[in-house]
Each structure stands twice: as structure tokens, then as C-alpha cells.
# Entry
Amino acid sequence: MDIIFLSEIKVQTRLGVPEWERMTAQTIILDIEISYDLSKAGKSDDVADTIDYGTVVSRIRETLNANSFQLVEALAEHICQLILNEFSALSVKIKVAKPAILPGLKALGVVIARNK
# Structure
């Protein structure tokens, strides 16, 4: 299967278990792999035959601006379901990283994969 990948997308969202942590938007970093049959787009050279990654990033930014999450797991699941349902992806793998949240820790997060 073919993969569209989006690497190190920096987005703002409200995320954290304590309510005070969700009061202010913070930066998270996303790495996303989207499985899709790209053979038609490879032949046609037409964006209509693939997933428009600019639109994917815009939708992610929009939904993360409108929602807040306690857990990175819930945020990752939300984005996977958005991509599967709105963009007809065959599968999605996402890494959500919350950088520098604890002293001496570069980042924490999750990696999840979902199939249609």
C-alpha cells in the first residue's frame, strides 16, 4: 500500500489532565502516515485523485483549535478517526509528541495506528 506522510506538524491545542493545563494552548508535534492507493494520482497527476495534504493539515488545525483533550491518546484517536472518515484513508498511523513537558524530558506521547 502507498503512504502519504506528514512529518513534524506543529500545532496548537489545549491538552492535559489538570484543568489549568488546558487553559492555554500549547504546541504539540504530529507525525502522520496515511495509507491510500496513489496509483491513479501517479498516472493522472491530478490532486483530485489523492488526499490533499494541505487540506488534511488545515482540518487538523481546525479541530484541535475547537476541542481540548485530557489525554494524548484521546487526541490521537480523534485525529485518526477524522482522517479515516473525512479523507477515505485506508489506514492511519499517528505519533503525537508533547515536547518538554517535564524537566529533563525531550518529549512524551503515543503512537497509534487505525484501519478503516
Summary: The first strand starts at residue 2 and ends at 15. The chain is about 30% helix and 40% strand. Residues 41 and 49 are 5 Å apart (CA to CA). The chain has a mean pLDDT of 94.
